[in-house]
Amino acid sequence: MRAATIRDGRIEVVEHPDPEPQDGQLLVRVHAAGLNGADLLQVAGHYPPPPGAPADIPGLELAGEVVSCGRRVGRFEPGDRVMGIVAGGGQAELAVIHERTAMPVPEELDWTAAGGVPEVFTTAHDALFTQAGLAVGERLLVHGAAGGVGMAAVQLGVMTGARVTATVRNEQCRTQVAALGVQAIDPEGFADYGPFDVILELVGAQNLTGNLEALATGGRIVVIGVGAGAVSDIDLRMLMHKRAVLRGSTLRSRPIEEKAITARLMEKMVLPGFASGDLIVPVAASYPLDEAPAAYDRFKAGKKLGKVVLEI
Amino acid sequence: MRAATIRDGRIEVVEHPDPEPQDGQLLVRVHAAGLNGADLLQVAGHYPPPPGAPADIPGLELAGEVVSCGRRVGRFEPGDRVMGIVAGGGQAELAVIHERTAMPVPEELDWTAAGGVPEVFTTAHDALFTQAGLAVGERLLVHGAAGGVGMAAVQLGVMTGARVTATVRNEQCRTQVAALGVQAIDPEGFADYGPFDVILELVGAQNLTGNLEALATGGRIVVIGVGAGAVSDIDLRMLMHKRAVLRGSTLRSRPIEEKAITARLMEKMVLPGFASGDLIVPVAASYPLDEAPAAYDRFKAGKKLGKVVLEI
For chain A, what is the domain count? Predict the structure, then answer.
């Protein structure tokens, strides 16, 4: 099989041996696989994949058709349309995924859209609900809302009946985010728009002091992206005064038991939103597998709305 | 009535009009009232009491006998032994407390001990269980364990079946804390003793980086005291990597509904520990009301094990 492959800090598309499904795993003919920030880090050598994941094939999510099943598989059979998060290796013609972390692809989604769903919607759902306990009527601020996770979070917030504010640096993207029915603002001076019950941080530590200022009493800040900077001052007296929660989270390093739980929550709480039309998958650009290097360049360039997806 | 009173940044004992119980309140003849760090801040002008609390009489907890009841009181009657947290005014011959925040005094406790229970045990219980979700078998680190809240937290941790480590600066106090059946260590180099699932911070921000280093994956840090310093650097990437929770909390500023819930939890989960002998109230020193200034000096001097209590 052919796969996007990390060679000397760059992406090439080369031939690999076909993977074989182990107990509980599905072998999937991949039709689409989204790019994520962690892929860039891995290409640059900063984010080694966890044990068991292919060392040189990036890709944290996939959508495709089940080709064959390992032993002790009960949930799916060959021919089923599945999607899900994987610890690596998704950007290839063939990939394996444990059946507990796989989800059925809703009828309403084509392959390209499905390839961009698992990572960002699972990450956003986990952060907003499992981590931050976002509830109807609460005020949500999403920093960096034009990216994949941000667009998923904004939509999930609206679908939940939260009142959503979104910071978007790029002016054109800001207009498009506002079209989702939320208050889209420039990051500059965001703290004046509070108080917020939940703040989702996808940008960096430079927002931390403003986040604490803008937080309501009992508010929760969840940090899942710090690409623009990881270190900041923090005034713990303000944290106490607000009775605030500051929480960090990542999905990739979790054990399979926890990832399986996120997949069940996705099936129950998120996938129905694609059927009802409450949720869409914003795809900024898609590329065939052979143009994976161009896809990575596009992803790096930023100023995009939603996902970059490989069609395979 | 006479009361400890703040005059020009110092404590005097002077005459005040008797308070009158409003709807739902008990008028209590106070027999004992503990000192707390927030009293010192209030004396120094740094911690104004919330609206409704006496402006110049400190005291966040009391134990005493019900003298009379306001309208719509149903839980207590004159003659009952009660204790509880108040927003201020506890260090006086008479004080009012809402019946929903009052608890019965367990038979096993004398007045002096009872006067030192409400603030520290409510604070410690709320922080460890309601905020941090401490569970049996988890590893707990308590910073500043020789103080009132620290001693309460250490005992509640042991009673819960957690594995408890306690930092204590003063060597003599450290030996006494170790006698509670926990690992008592010097704060220097505490991070080497991890990983911990829950860390209770009662000292200051200088521990924050070490706390994050010493935290287990999925661990929770609860900050409820920062007397030694409130500001620190924080590396949010480490927070993400550990999937850590950093939470600040205070009790005093909460609305009465929330304080009432803490009192119900105390009745259910903490007071039985005094009957069973699992919990003791460490009283470092007690003073009659007239010697309140000396009690405040003793509290300020530190190097004490447990509470300083006024006997009234």
Answer: 2
Main-chain phi, psi angles of B65, to 5 degrees: -110, 135
Residue A136: CA atoms inside 13 Å, Cβ hemisphere, count? Answer: 2
Same domain, A93 and A138: no
Distance between CA atoms of A152 and A121, rounded to whole angstroms? Answer: 5
Q: Would residue B227 count as lying in a domain?
A: yes
**Cα nearest neighbour of A239 on chain B:** B248
* Cβ contacts of B144 within 8 Å, gap of 6 or more: B150, B167, B168, B169, B202, B203, B225
Residue B172 has pLDDT above 80, yes or no: yes
Q: Which of A233, A246, A249 faces B243 most closely, judged by CB atoms?
A: A249
For B250, the closest of A223, A243, A248 (CB atoms) is: A243
Contact B236 A249 (CB under 8 A): no
Instruction: Give A248's contacts in chain B (Cβ within 8 Å).
Output: 236-244
Say how far apart CA B206 and CA B194 lie, in whole Å.
Answer: 17
Closest chain A C-alpha to B146 CA, distance in angstroms? 21
| Res. A47: pLDDT tops 80 | no
Q: How many Å lie between the alpha carbon of A225 and the closest alpha carbon of chain B?
A: 8
> Which residues in A lie closer than 8 A to residue B244 (C-beta atoms)?
247-248
Position B104 in a domain: yes
A186 and A288 part of one domain: no
| pLDDT of amino acid B304 | 79
What tens digit of pLDDT does each residue of A271-298 get?
A: 999 999 999 998 999 999 999 999 999 9
User: What CA dihedral angle connects A250, A256, A259 and A261, to 10 degrees?
Assistant: -140
In this prediction, what percent of chain A has a pLDDT beyond 70? 100
The residue among A213, A248, A283 that closes a domain is A248
Residue numbers of the domain that contains B91:
2-117+279-311
Write down which residue in B205, B233, B248 finishes a domain: B248
In a domain, B253, yes or no: no
Whether residue B104 is found in the same domain as residue B59: yes
Best interface-test mutation with B: which of A217, A232, A235, A240 has the largest number of B CBs within 10 A? A240
CATH number of the domain residue A158 falls in: 3.40.50.720
CA distance B146 to B134: 20
Q: Which of B77, B102, B91 is nearest to B40 (CA)?
A: B91
- Decide if B245 and A246 are in contact by the 8 Å CB cutoff: yes
Is the same domain home to B148 and B242?
yes
pLDDT of A89:
96
CB contact under 8 A, B231 and A232: no
Nearest beta carbon to residue A243 from set B205, B242, B248: B248
Model confidence pLDDT, tens digit, residues B114-139: 999 999 999 999 999 999 999 999 99
Judged against a pLDDT cut of 80, whether residue A303 lies above it is answered with no
Q: What does the pLDDT read at residue B253?
A: 83
Same domain, A265 and A213: no
> What is the pLDDT confidence band of residue B49, given thresholds at 50, 70 and 90?
confident
Same domain, B128 and B244: yes
On whether both A232 and A274 belong to a single domain, the answer is: no
